[in-house]
Amino acid sequence: MEVVESALADIAVRDRTLNCFTAVTADRARAEAAAVDAAVAAGRDPGPLAGVPVAAKNLFDIEGLTTLAGSKIERDKPAAARDTFVLRRLRAAGAVPVGALNMDEYAYGFTTENHHHGPTRNPHDPGRIAGGSSGGSAAAVAAGLVPLSLGSDTNGSIRVPASLCGVFGLKPTYGRLSRGGAYPFAASFDHVGPFARSAADLALAYDAAQGADPDDPAQQWREPAPASPLLDSGIGALRIAVADGHFARNGHGEAFAAVAAAARALGATARVEVPEAARGRAAAFLITMAEGGNLHLPDLRTRPDDFDPMTRDRFLAGALLPASWLLQAQRVRAAYRARVLPLFEEWDLLLTPATPYVAPRIGQDTVEVDGEAVPVRPNLGVYTQPISCIGLPAMSVPLVDPGAAGAPGGLPIGLQLVAAPWREDLLFRAARALERAGVAGSPTPPR
């Protein structure tokens, strides 16, 4: 109860500036905290996350709250009758939900500059974005408002804000964690996953969230693959390479310096081309637009003015894409996957940047990259989209000292670890090795 009361008090004061939360479930949190204390007092095992405050992106069903998915349109819908599957799993491990977190409308964005709920601000510089679309989830953990949170990742919406806020974020293999009770964006791309300030905390959340759920038809259930026992097993003879080509362009120096620091610590000297990454990313753009536009077509026809202006036109464009474009994008996606998977016969892990630069300022429209002005928002996913396009597991790992990598103002920046499908265990081993080497860790924001 003391832990939860402290978290609620902190949220009440500091979230006025950061705007991470769209709802705080204080009464429920107190009741569940009391139940954990009662279990401890009775000598029962309260679970590995006993009393840990947790919050979830507001596209996850939270019992008693309307699932907003960052929108105005969903406000009139009934409140959720029960929690989303992964939140139920965390509660079964003892975690205590304290609220719902801000996001880009319908998860279509990389900045969490939400027209309806206001922007979430980066705890390291409130004038800058937190990233998106799970910006509230990343910022709440970075600020220490909660130690764990849940987000979703379609094209990078966990890994981008994790990098910009300086926390760990996991996008598991497509189908590993259930999406039951989570509002969809683009069903063939959507993933869910946790945020935390250390590899160990991330592993605890990931382990607890696993389970078979018949409500997610895309889930490809496999027996649990616990990460926690593997954290300190070291990298041993893992074959690790730095991704070249597409992943060595399109960004600023701090993004590549983060990868170089990780490569030195992990002894990764080889470089490998990820074939057709740019085309894979292009296919991801089109398929995402089409699936999202189709999902929201009824409201686009009848309530276009109720959409966030930053998402409406992209959904409309997706709804109007020619079928031949979508078919070709799916062919490219399949061909790209067939070219990439053989890389993991030779390599266990790939290192790439997580984001192309540190957090831009709120309202900033363009940034210069390779001598050319590019749009800020879509370019934030330049390194994450080619990975989620084919469902590979990936983790954003923060640099403990981003200033040493030349990050402007010492702002956070992360690197991305990528593994073969179902090998999340390798991501955790490498992340823990980077922590032990003094390379990875969540930098503490100013208070």
Automatic annotation (TrEMBL):
InterPro entries cross-referenced by the UniProt entry: Amidase (IPR000120), Amidase_dom (IPR023631), AS_sf (IPR036928), Carboxybiuret_hydro_AtzE (IPR014087)
Pfam family, one: Amidase
Domain of life: Bacteria
Lineage: Bacteria, Pseudomonadati, Pseudomonadota, Alphaproteobacteria, Acetobacterales
Residue ranges, annotated region (Disordered): 114-135
Name the UniProt record assigns to this protein: AtzE family amidohydrolase
All residue ranges annotated as the Amidase domain in the record: 2-427
